[in-house]
Amino acid sequence: MTIEESYQDIVNKIDAACQRVDRNPAEVEIIAVTKYVSVATAQAAINVGVKHLAENRLEGFSKKYEEIGNEVNWHFVGTLQSRKVKEIINQVDYLHSLDRTSLAKEVNKRTEQTVRCFVQVNTSGEDSKHGLSPENVSEFIDSLEKFPKIQVVGLMTMAPFDAGEEDIRKYFKRLKGLRDKIKSNNWEHAPCEYLSMGMSNDFEIAVEEGATHVRIGTSLVGNEAE
Ligand SMILES: *Cc1c(COP(=O)(O)O)cnc(C)c1O
């Protein structure tokens, strides 16, 4: 499939998933995760209509950003070491991996403008995954009020790669439940409207469960490292 065909296929699947649960497809943003592909391939995705790009490592992010610049929205979806924050934070439109106070403090200190952040939640309890335990999310977000440049726009999760559909759905429902609870506080620093969940393998389930941002790599732009 060409990128154009892959993109259309994903758009169609999102439309169908929305129809099944009575959602408006305009509520779902497609983020192309370009970590395994070249700048040229990322550019090809932009040419077929992608408006959001994501990287999960500092080096990859900086390289793509330098070449492509501000014509798209930039998402950072990987673990970010606090000491590296200053190198990229002013290029990041959305940070998807906020999961600790030390990182929030450093982001707040180094950014020149408000940073839109997703708080990452470990909804499955799997050891290898980053993110806060669900029971700690509310208190953590409440505590972020002291960092005026951090705005919590939503929650993010990753389902384990080998989980079955039933479990994946359960983790996504868990994230939505948390989002609804936090949103209902009407905290000024944490509107928490969005749900960043769903990747190549599970984005249709994620959309059925309320995802507003799906992060798609392999099925959209491929994997040139393979
Ligand atoms: C790599 C990655 C994705 C995309 O994964 P695919 O399975 O290739 O779609 C999404 N989110 C995060 C955080 C990633 O690291």
UniProtKB/TrEMBL annotation:
It comes from the Bacteria. One of its GO terms (molecular function) is pyridoxal phosphate binding. The modification N6-(pyridoxal phosphate)lysine is found at residue 35. Keywords: Pyridoxal phosphate. InterPro entries: Ala_racemase_N (IPR001608), PLP-binding_barrel (IPR029066), PyrdxlP_homeostasis (IPR011078). Coiled coil: none annotated. Residues 26-223 form the Alanine racemase N-terminal domain. Its cofactor is pyridoxal 5'-phosphate. Transmembrane segments: none annotated. Pyridoxal 5'-phosphate (PLP)-binding protein, which is involved in PLP homeostasis. HAMAP family: PLP_homeostasis (MF_02087). Belongs to the pyridoxal phosphate-binding protein YggS/PROSC family. This is Pyridoxal phosphate homeostasis protein. It comes from Halalkalibacillus sediminis.
